[in-house]
Amino acid sequence: MAFAATLSYALGGAVLAADSCSLKAPDPVLRAKAYPGQTLDKRSADTSTETAQLRPGLRLAIRQDGCEDYVTTRFTLIAAHAQAPDRSDEAWIDFARTELGKLLTREPGRYKRLDEFLVKARRTAPQDGERIVCRDGSQPVAGLCSWDSLGGDVFSVKRGRTTTTITVMEYVSA
Fold it and tell me: Quick check: pTM over 0.85?
């Protein structure tokens, strides 16, 4: 979680420090009206969040941030315990691959690379509860991919009292 927390703090600070980002939040990921109760919230010119109830007991949130030289897309699946018995991290990776692969997206096939990351994540040792793969194949240092790596992907699972939260984040730096 160190990478996601550090990245979230760093990116949040960058957005707060300069609201003059030339790269705006990407277009929505999901097809319009693909899911009941689907929402799209553009809180600022460079951040958007989509939410959807995929089925009873399984919610999805997609947050996208963009600025001068980065774009992040964070897919968060929130599974109720009744729908999701305790699983290993590897089983949650398989679950994420299945669920993200079925999403009704505006650009079918766009997230193929994310699926390729999840395959690699199964073979990647966790670091502070996260599985991190740098885009250029380099090793993360202290839970972070270097700027020169062009970004990275992060998988994490957080088990709560009533839900399990599975997060898959892609970070692209330019």
Answer: no
